[in-house]
Design a protein that fits this description.
This protein has 273 residues and is an alpha/beta fold. The protein has 7 helices and 9 strands. Strand 1, helix 1 and strand 2 form a beta-alpha-beta unit.
Length: 273
């Protein structure tokens, strides 16, 4: 039997490991996706090179413009990592390598998702490579924008999942409202740049940055609320790829037609111009 499956890539957050996103990968795989998790040398906690050397996460600048420039460069490099893997998968499908996946991957339906810097990487991979048909950014922003290096969004559908924007200590309510509205407008401009399909912003009430990995439930396996928020995120991530990669109609879209009853999730939709 010939296996035709959408392929989804996971780009990791800085200083992380693929294992911290196991629940996302298992959920997608259990619904028919083939999932590849990318290690990024010098960004992951540790990585073994082909010659056996172990390289660890590089030291990052402490802040300011140097940190922003460093992050910009790393997102660029990480997007190149994604493109390299796509090239290798094409060679696998064409039979250049002897693997069980020969002729069994549908590379016409590729999605990329990531968390934190990995989320920015996913958006950048969408911008740089048309083979990527959809991308999802889990709480990765610079200057409130879910796509960063070229300060623009991709043409392909983009899902941005975020924790609530914080207020600053001592900030007056009206000042906070104006600042947060401005930040959302910047992010919305990126999401509104889509040219095909629909893009979404999902705000998860009560989430932290670590909600979008397995870290919180690993730290406290009995914590019900983090597990619930993680389950919501997994469900809507899968729904997004189901819609974007399979071109579901509006009536079939989970993102357009359902929402949790306790208003934990706020979904905003951006349609093509």
């Amino acid at each position: 039997m010939r296996l035709i499956s959408s392929r989804t890539f996971s780009a990791l957050g800085s200083g992380s490991l693929p294992a911290l996103y196991t629940s996302f990968m298992e959920d997608l795989a259990s619904h028919g996706y083939v999932v590849a998790a990318l290690d990024h040398p010098y960004d992951d906690v540790a990585f073994r090179l082909s010659d056996g050397r172990i390289v660890k996460e590089a030291t990052r600048p402490s802040g300011g413009e140097k940190l922003l420039q460093y992050q910009r460069e790393r997102v660029n490099v990480r997007a190149q990592d994604v493109r390299f893997v796509l090239d290798q998968l094409s060679r696998i499908v064409q039979g250049e390598f002897d693997t069980p996946f020969r002729g069994r991957l549908d590379l016409a339906r590729i999605g990329v998702f990531g968390h934190s810097t990995g989320g920015l990487t996913a958006a950048e991979a969408c911008i740089k490579d048309r083979r990527v048909k959809a991308c999802a950014n889990l709480d990765g922003v610079v200057n409130a924008q879910p796509a960063y290096v070229d300060l623009q969004g991709p043409n392909q559908p983009l899902l941005f999942v975020e924790k609530p924007l914080p207020t600053l200590e001592g900030e007056k309510p009206e000042e906070a409202r104006q600042r947060l509205n401005l930040l959302r407008q910047r992010g919305n401009a990126v999401l509104a740049s889509v040219r095909r399909g629909r893009s979404y912003r999902i705000t998860v009430e009560g989430a932290t940055h670590d909600t979008f990995s397995d870290e919180e439930i690993i730290s406290d396996a009995n914590a019900a609320r983090p597990r619930q928020l993680l389950d919501f995120t997994r469900m809507y991530l899968r729904a997004f790829f189901d819609e974007a990669l399979n071109e579901l109609s509006e009536s079939e879209s989970l993102l357009l037609n359902t929402a949790p009853s306790d208003r934990t999730i706020q979904i905003e939709t951006f349609s093509p111009r």
